[in-house]
Amino acid sequence: MRWTSPCWNATVPPPWIERSVCTAQLDRLVDLLSSACQNRHVTTRPGPRQRLLDAARELTYSQGVQVGVDAILKQADVARRSLYQHFGGKDGLVAEVLRSDGGLDRYRQVMDAAGDDPRERVLAVFDELDVITSQPAFRGCRYTAAELALTDPAHPAHGEVRSFKEGLHRLMAAELTRHGHPAPDAGADQLLVLIDGVLAHAVTRPAARPALAARALAEAVFATSR
User: Do 144 and 59 share a structural domain?
Assistant: First the structure.
């Protein structure tokens, strides 16, 4: 059955058919919009605690751990009360920055990307250090810098620094053990001296690329194995 439009004197679908088509199209549009909303990644602003951590992580590295509280609060855009609520004060915030920095995880990632051979895994660390210390924003090791700047022996950051250094020592010792080094703990001490030396030397003489010299010395540590 066809419908004759009284306005155009033409054969067109009856109005209830048009309404049905329009309704179907509208339903389809609603479905598409709903799907788009569900699949869209909604970016929300981090909460005060995370903003404090982000601001402190950046400023304590670029300006040192002695950076003022006001500068951290301003960049984080939070009230002073939030600092004490979440961290008990600046000391707790600095300690949490070090604890949550993920430094050991980055060492593991670099080593894992180098494969399974212990020697190559450790040498890859020095290759990565060469890249890192060549960056304009490089300011040395944040852990060592904090240890030197914080003179109060009771500051909670000291424990985080030692925890990181001991964890790195265990990583190096484990690789030397797998390689068959006769004294893996002593060898790990040597590797940490090289790593710390690179991070310190590169601050004052970045063009010297100290990581390359340290890499050659690290090879000598492995040469004593087996």
Answer: no
